[in-house]
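Usage example:
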Amino acid sequence: MSEVQKDNQIKKMRVDEVPEMKYIIEKDRIYKGDRVSKFLEIFASVLKFSNYRPVLEQYIKVSAKCSRCSVACHVYQASGDPKDIPCYRSELLLSIYRRYFSVDSSMYGRIFGGFELTEEHIDQMADSFWKCTACRKCVLECPMGIDHGMLTHLARYIMAEMNMAPRALVISTREQLHGATKNTSAIPFVALQDSLEFLEEEIEEAHGVKVKFPIDVPDAEYIFFAPVSDYMMEAETLMGIAVVMHAAGASWTIGSKFYDAINYGLFYSDLVLGRVLRNMEDEVRRLNAKKVLIGECGHASRSATFLPTYWRGDDCPPVINIMELTHKFLKEGKIKLDPNVIGDRVTYHDPCNIARQNWVVEQPRDIIKAFCSDFVEMTPNRSEQYCCGGGGGTVSIDEIRKYRTLVGGRRKAKQIQDTGAHYVIAPCANCKKQFRELMEDNKVDGELVGLHDLIFKAIKMK
Amino acid sequence: MESLLEFAKGPMFRLSFAILILGLIRLIVLAVINGFEAKSRGKDKKIPKHYVRKLTWGFIIPIRSFRVKPFYSVVSILFHIGLIATPLLLWDHAWLFQQSIDIGWTGITLSHEVANWLTILTIVTGIILLILRASTFESRFLSRKQDFIWPILLIIPFVTGYICANSAIEPATYNAYMLIHVLAGNIIFILMPFTKIAHCVLMPLSQWVTARSWKFPPETGEQVAMSFGKENEEL
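Running the assembly step on the lines above writes:
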């Protein structure tokens, strides 16, 4: 029996009481006029200038309402609310497209009536599309190939243009694009430098080697972008990355003008996605780096894969995730890991954004097996892996923590418990925050680490 | 009755069949054109071809179906095999085409027994699918009226066809059943390009169209903002 079939034998994960999911929107920017017309105007404009029309035309014609997607959805499994079934949620948006914009079906609607967009429907969408974590596990099960994650992204984009987006994400993005610090956590560069100097001392103390975090080195092979929260909160991940790059003799740099790989645009706005990536492009060009290296973060890596779309020109450098690079160094023998350091049981979580389409799946496993003797897989794993529950930007919205950890994260909590692992490796900044919170709220034992945290412990430095 | 039957088998069938074929061709052509337009508007021309092929073939030759709901998948696959193979490979249908347009495939048709068994299989699996749709909580919640009507509508030609092919009945009764058979078939043909049954030709294109649509045009965000005069506005 395959992993997926074994997984479907497991009984449902219904919670007894579903906590409220209510995120805060900035009050002074809420659109006060007729939301129905505004929604339709924005939708029309988006359709005119984007590539969404082909998929919407396709999806309204093929949806079979077979409910296979419901089996894969971690939110539906925990909440039991049929409005969380991915196809139902997608239909909230598709019914609008069908009625008002489709070539074939809008005529039927005009003659026979039927669905009409209302304020209540918009409220329902505002609620529902932020319960989805856009993990796209449902996409693997839909026989008609409907990408519910893309529809979540599109619905959120249209609502964001009406200023109906969670305040937590908007404020962070505003700082990243317009603020003085140019990152989502408003960390001034001097604070970052202090932090890095401190880490350099820690590395020397731990391994007896002087390792530098190179700032503003021109013509380096790799320019490194990490989620900025890592610089303050995931010191060991960064130290692990620095020692790997040092041991492999790689030429790399961090840019002082732009260093935050976080891109909330992937969650709620194509406009933001493009603007953040253009800032990234400016920094890459300023330092004339050859390749773009993204740290341990799923969404940051996947957002960066949109760089060829927004790059001005045809010479876009390749985008690499740090685990791909570490794996390459390991295979080439440039880094050596001590297999006797980590004796505890270890398990690995595949971040949705890098594993769902089979990008970074086997590389971290090869690395882990090289130095962890007791490695146990979760069920299911690899591209079938369940979302941590905090995907799609929901992890950054603190006011919905209970919903996120007790409903969205319930499946993941069970998976971790079933492995009995001590170290839970989650190589994604968002997943890390979510894991810590869900392990606390669901009372799951274990220590949450990034992959390079363990590499930092086990690497043999000369 | 007989003139009505002649009309249903003659001009009405020809019209319905034309609507079917032309409608489905139109859908394929539009989807392909849309996909290539998405390619030209998107700046990044590369798509994950291996992933697209794996998921597309995985549901056409439905190896992926058994991952969830295996019983439902088996029933659905058998239903589709019966649904597609029986009308296409039935000797009677091939013979009718031969008589009408001198193109037939009477050489590669099913034997009477096999056709009978396939017909019964289609009817039984169709009824089971309907029961599953009504009895599973999620399916019941999601389904629209058409999702319940389609299995019934699709079974009607099979039931009436089976009766006509196998029962010893009076000519008037035979004509009545044949009329229902042909009318049901015609209605199915007319509705196919305009409902979810279009998935018969559109399903293989979904993954490719999706992959193309993920490659955004670079100026979408700015152009949408400009159309509302917000291009210089802070977030």
